[in-house]
Design a protein that fits this description.
Strand order of the largest sheet: 1-2-6-5
Helix content: 10-25%
Shape: flat
CATH superfamily of one domain: Urease metallochaperone UreE, N-terminal domain
Radius of gyration: 27 Å
Order of helices and strands: HHHHEHEHEEEEEEHEEEEH
Strand content: 25-35%
Structural class: alpha+beta
CATH class of one domain: Mainly Beta
Length: 314
Amino acid sequence: MEYRDYYQIMGLKRDASQDEIKRAYRKLARKYHPDVSKESDAEERFKEVGEAYEVLKDPEKRAAYDHLGANYRAGQEFHPPPDWDSGFEFRGGGFTDAAGGGFSDFFEELFGRQAHDAHGFRSRFDARGQDHHAKVVVDLEDSFHGAARSISLQVPSLDAQGRMQLTSRTLNVKIPRGIREGQMIRLAGQGMPGMGQGAGGDLYLEIHFRPHPFYRAEGRDLHMQLPVTPWEAALGDTVTVPTPDGKVDLKIPPGSSSGSKLRLKGRGLPGKPAGDLYITLSVVAPPANTEPARAAYRELASQLAFNPRAGMGV
């Protein structure tokens, strides 16, 4: 997927005001409109300009796009960094509310996910504030034990000159024990303030886990790779395994191999019922970095005469 420089497409500097963005769009839309333009690539350029404007006209989409940084070049191979959009606070279901059809893969990757419905006005003068949404990243252990965390959010807005700015706010948030990735924490009244006598909107925090050195979460279940020695796999053994709730003994059946899967019931994330911990064995051979080690390998080879490629006809 190629990176798209929306500022370059519209001939703008990265600190352009919203009025400058609007004027540039009007000029380019007239220039490349397929009904009037004589340019050979008018239709394609018209779509590019429309896509760029869809992002830059919206302070929230623009803030998220700018967060990726200015170090990418147009046409450069691009993949969004993990959790690139975490810590930003947006109206409604997030910055994906207005995902449009016919835009590039780059746009769809960043802004094309399905958003949650937002609440509308209840009356002309008393209106409930709009809900806000933010993605936050926590440790997997926070879900296993529950935690209280201080979370900072960036809120995009426009200043008096129409230029995009970010303001910060910090909230104390309780992470419930057993929360799963993708679940929401609702903070009542922490969204946009209401109009008149209207109540404030809510803030929804979408939970994501930081990459863990041992575990990968799927729902309430956890998955991990466990390195074992060739003799532990071949002969069977009982080994100590780390779990989020402490160390446990795991029995490895004789004749196991790399890819063999074992399950520790109830050792996943807490819940009713609790998840399981699934363990995939990975057989690791000791290095042959000394003469005694090399001699041991040669002796093993002569005793076993084992060919792991026999089934391949070689």
